[in-house]
Structures are given as C-alpha cells and as structure tokens.
Amino acid sequence: MGITGLKHSLNTVFTLWLREMLRYRRSRSRIIGSLATPLFFLIIMGSALSTTMTMRSGNYIDYMAPGIIGMSVLFASLMGGVSIIWDREFGFLKEILVAPVSRFYTAFGKAAGGVTAAMVQGTLLMVISGMFVVEYVSVTGQLLSILIMFITGMGFIGLGITLASRIESHEGFQMMMTFITFPTLMASTAFYPMANLPPWLGIPVQLNPLTYGVEALRWALLGASEVPIMRSMTIIIVFSFTMILIGSWSFDKAGDH
C-alpha cells in the first residue's frame, strides 16, 4: 500500500470513528443509562453483599468496583456491533463497503468508535466511583486502567462485530447479546473472588477473558489481584488481537453477500 492509499485508509478509520462518536454524544439516554445502572449495582448490590462477603483485605465495595467497570466495558463494547446492523438496514453499510478501501480499515474504524465509547463510560464510572465510594491506590493506576479498558474493549467489540456480521436483524442481535453478556459477566471474578468458587465453576471462570480484564483493572486500581498482572495482560492482548482479526474477516465476508 502506497502513502496515498494509507492516507485514504486512515481517513476512513477517522471518519467512521467520528461518526460513532457523534452518534454516541447525541444519545443522552444511552450515556445516562450506561452510568446509572452500574452505579446502582455498585452502591445497592455492593452495600447489600458487603454484609455477607468476607474479604481478606479491604471492603467488598472496593473489590466490586473494578468488576462493575469491566461490566460496563463489556456491555458497551458488545453493543457496538448494533451500529453495523443499523447501517445495514439503512443502506449506509453498502455505501462504505463499495469504497476503494480495505474492509479491514472499515471494520477497524467502527471498532475504534465503539471501544472509545466504552472507554468513556468506563472512565466516567471509575472517576465517579472514586469520588464517592471507592479509594484507589494511585493516579498512575487509574491511567493504566484506561489502557486496560481499551484492550479489553477491543476484544469484545471484535466479538460484537463478528456476531453483527452474521446476524441480520436487530432483535436477533439483542437476543444473542443477552445470551452472551450475562453468562460472561457471572462466570468471571467481577462479583466474587476466584478462591471462593466451587471447583466446577472455577474452570469457566479461568477460561473467561473478562476475568483477566477485571483482574488487571483490580491490580491497577486497588494494587492487588488474584492473577499475576503479566498473565492478565498477556491474555487480554491475545484475546483482543484475535477477536479483531476474526471480526475484520467476518465483516469482510459479510460484505460479499
């Protein structure tokens, strides 16, 4: 690819990213809902469970905060695939697929927009939680957590793009998201320590990429986690890279039909 071709490809990525950002900014109900629901979980559910959960160090609400941030990133990233279905229904997807640009950059532009929205939600949730209910170890850790949100979000939005490329209807995509999000969330360490799990549940938790995203956030924000940080980072980076490749391939194949 020459310099001119690369410039056109990057312009495509930026244009699609900007389009997703404008769509996100105009959806105030989405922004409010993306913050209100996780905060409700953190304050109400965290306060209720803190009376029954025994932590080795710290309190349960502090432990739960990185899990709630990971939940927000998971939901927002997977739902980023909805834009593909909307664009397909309104004909916009057909217009961008005929452009003389590799479909990888088209998929990457949409993924970048979706994961940026997820990072904004996760970062706002982190800041609000830190102001009122959670004590983080350092500002450096909070900055590192933004990078962790990005890596984790790219993996799950790659999954969202893969599914959206295969599913024709908005309703079908919503049902599939419900089927995926809650088992993924509950079979992770978002709400309970890995050491407290029965052996049969420990296996899916350890195979779940969200577990390692949450544990990396926990290490960055609280200074401790059940999984070594290098293992968590390696797994979420490999997961992110793999899912973006699969998502781009699925998006490319979907455009051939």
TrEMBL record:
Membrane topology type: Multi-pass membrane protein
A Pfam family reported for this protein in Swiss-Prot or TrEMBL: ABC2_membrane
Parts of the chain that traverse the membrane: 31-51, 63-86, 107-132, 144-164, 176-195, 229-251
Domain of life: Archaea
Record keywords, A-Z: Membrane, Transmembrane, Transmembrane helix
Record carries keyword Hydrolase: no
Major subcellular location class: membrane
InterPro entries the UniProt entry points to: ABC2_TM, ABC2_TM_bact-type, ABC_2_transport, Nod_factor_ABC_transporter
Key word Transmembrane present: yes
Record localization: Membrane
Any Gene Ontology CC annotation: ATP-binding cassette (ABC) transporter complex
Domain called ABC transmembrane type-2: residue spans: 29-254
GO MF terms held by the record: ABC-type transporter activity
UniProt protein name: Multidrug ABC transporter permease
Organism (species): Methanolobus chelungpuianus
